[in-house]
Amino acid sequence: MQMLAVHTTAKRTLSFDDVPPPRLSPGRALVRVHAVSLCGTDLHIFEDRYPTTLPLVQGHELTGTVIEADPADRVRAGDRVAIDPLVACGACAACRGGHANVCQNLSVLGCYQDGGLTEVLSVGVDRLHAVPDDLPLDLAALGEPTSIAMQAVSRAEPTPGDVVLVLGCGPIGLLATLSLSERGVTVVAADIDPQRAALAPVFGAAHALSVDRDFPDGAGGLLLDGLTEGAGPRLIIEATGVPASLQNAIRLIAPAGRIVQVGISAGHAEIRIKDLTDKEIELRGSRNSRGLIPEALALLGRHREAAQRLVTHRFPLTRLAEAFDTMADPGVLTEKIIIDVERSGR
Fold this sequence. Notes:
Blueprint: E1 3-10, E2 13-19, E3 28-38, H1 40-46, E4 61-69, E5 80-83, E6 86-87, H2 93-96, E7 107-108, E8 120-124, E9 128-130, H3 137-140, H4 143-156, E10 163-167, H5 171-181, E11 186-191, H6 194-199, E12 207-210, H7 219-228, E13 235-238, H8 243-252, E14 258-261, H9 273-278, E15 282-285, H10 293-302, H11 304-310, E16 311-316, H12 320-328, E17 336-340
Helix pairs in contact: 4-5, 4-10
């Protein structure tokens, strides 16, 4: 018996291959992949703009059903699971210090080793997390990006009553807004795309701003001044990765405020050192998550309507190229695209 696996073999080139299914091995389980959620990293790999080695089976935001496991392990056939794609070494200084999310030898399913765009995947049992009964498996594929957003919120350390500015209403910004909304803070979400900004109230934003690159001129500036007595927000989560947006955050943050950079970019932001010292700004990075997928699944379960709104497109596995073309089209609003692997139509 063979199974389908889709390899990205070169720039914008996919190979739909019949391959032998994996065999059960100690400490691992076999998972029938149900759904994969695509993100910007997937598009970068597809376009050969990401530092990895091809060919590669992509897909790092995924869910499925266990079909075989060692009877001695904690999972059983039939279990509905979300998969944590991070594979840390457990031995480096970061891992020993409890920061496996920034492991010096980190690997990631679907980014540096074969991932979920296949029918059956062998996964370490410690990477599997139970999906709550009331959360559909396709929406549970959002657990991984939700955990990244929650890591950024954790790094921000919000307290009730804070005014938090979220820059960027893509999936991570919206999911961070959702997490913040449960913490008793006032969230102001901003994006240069009015359609994306319009989604923010669904995720709990008290105020949603469609802005231009001169933000916060005009009404946006007046709003922030009114909410913060002219001091600026105490917390800012930068979720775009655009250098100018980080520069804006440094300009806008309140004295003794905290900025969390979760948006990813290889770009360079010009920062005046004096701006950091004059206001005693805390500038923190945020990467991956420290085991937050269970909490992320619970958050999605409490806010299924928002999770459903985040999914803008669905494709079967056999139409993966069309899904990537949709992501790359600047004229199409895409938040999350779900690839229905189990309904591939083969």
